[in-house]
Amino acid sequence: MPDSASLQTATTDRKVPFAVVIQGEGDDPDALMARFAARLRQSGWCVRGLIQPPRLPGQPRPMVVLDLDDESSLYDIANPLGPNAQGCRVDPSAVADASVVLRRARAEGADLVMVNRFGTLEASGGGLVAEIAGLLSDSIPVLAVLNPRYLQEWRDFTAGTGTELPPRMEAVQEWFDQLFPPR
Q1: Is the dihedral of CA 25, 33, 63, 164 positive or negative?
Q2: CA-CA distance, 120 to 129, in Å (whole number)?
Q3: Using one digit for the tens of pLDDT, what is the confidence trace for 83-137?
Q4: 3 state DSSP class of 179
């Protein structure tokens, strides 16, 4: 796992352009991410990455991620554990397959890259950590959703220089506007 010292050095000892929307009980951060991506793209920003489709009322969160650049590209990231299984349902190999989206976003020089979660895999140094570190080393801002149970691991990853946001459009927009003054 890239260490937080290399992230700070890569961003010349300034705040890392990595923000997380802290997911609260009853919040739908996936809908927020989808709306924010649509808003920015309509304004001409190059927004790339992976988001989870917003959940339907009364339904569990879908275990798929959507490529913002090609909405017909869905990556099923669920590990088929069976109906009575407990624990993490994320399939690391499926996440590795989806990581191509973040590498492509880095190569294209996106204005903002969204990542569906900084979650179980990333908290343990796996998942999309290498792709996120690469984006940050190129000073490409990253916005992700974070379950509060991984807050300390995220803080460690960013050496405490990332931004924690409530799940509100105004907060996400304000963070983005600080990086890129409105056009």
Answers
A1: negative
A2: 11
A3: 665 555 788 888 999 999 999 999 999 999 999 999 999 999 999 999 999 999 9
A4: helix
Domain membership flag for residue 74:
no
Using alpha carbons, select from 86, 91, 155 the residue that is nearest to residue 118.
Answer: 155
Which CATH number does the domain housing residue 172 bear?
A: 3.40.50
Which residue range(s) make up the domain with 169? 4-9+16-47+103-179
Q: Could you tell me the two tokens for 160?
A: 């405490």
Question: Lowest-confidence range among 14-23, 36-45, 61-70, 75-84?
Answer: 75-84
Residue owning tokens 């907060």: 171
- Name the amino acid, one letter, at 142: V
Answer whether residue 59 is part of any domain: no
Taken as a whole, the chain contains a residue count of 183
What sign does the dihedral 156-134-1-144 (CA atoms) show? Answer: positive
DSSP per-residue string spanning 60-118: PPPSEEEETTEEEEEEE-B----TT--S--B-HHHHHHHTHHHHHHHHHT-SEEEES--
Is 141 among the domain residues? yes
Angle between the N-to-C axes of helices 100-108 and 129-137, in degrees from 0 to 180, rounded to the nearest 10: 10
